Amino acid sequence: MAIVNPQNRGPKAKRGRSKMRMGEISADEYRSTALLQILAILIILGLLLVVAIPRFVDTRRDRLQEAEEAEAHSFMRALHGVLTVNTANHYLRGVKWVQNGETLMGLLEEDRAMPEGMRYADNVWTDKRTGLQWEFKGASGRLPPRIRRVEQRLPPENWEMEPIVRGAQSRSPDS
Are 148 and 137 in contact (CB under 8 A)? Predict the structure, then answer.
């Protein structure tokens, strides 16, 4: 059996005058490795800052917009349900038609209130948060009263273009 001397830790590394042995790491090598790790972490954080965080904020804003639209649509579905019941009662029992949106909202259940960002004026419900609009149309002739969504029309684009002016065409010099 070979006796291992604790003083002898193996062959010396050939690094000039250094007294380091193989397997040992110098302080300079450790510092450079730590700097590379810190640099890699900063690059990853930079990528997160540039890509992931704006995407998260956009997704959050989109989800909030969808929730607001769902709330407005839910209220309008409730109004449609009340209007359907009124129409059925008109045909079956001879109840008078609903004359306007104010009366229609009065027929809603008491716990059902108009969403916070929604306004009603002149038989038009407008959701200020989403820009959605619905219009109440009274009964006319054989048609029952109804609620229809008002499609938003984009304003016409004004093309302010300068007319194309043909400049004086220069002739190539004859030589």
Answer: yes
Please give the structure tokens belonging to residue 90. Answer: 């008109």
**What tokens were used for 144?**
């029952």
Euclidean distance between CA atoms 112 and 35, whole angstroms:
62
* Segment (H or E) for 62: helix 53-93
CA distance 81 to 110: 15
Query: Could you report the per-residue pLDDT of 106-155, keeping only the tens digit for each?
Result: 999 888 889 888 999 999 999 998 889 999 999 988 889 999 999 876 66
Model confidence, pTM: 0.59
Measure CA 167 to chain center: 48
Structural Rg of the chain based on CA atoms: 39
The first and second tokens of residue 37, run together, are 């790790």
Q: Is residue 72 classed as helix, strand or coil in its secondary structure? A: helix
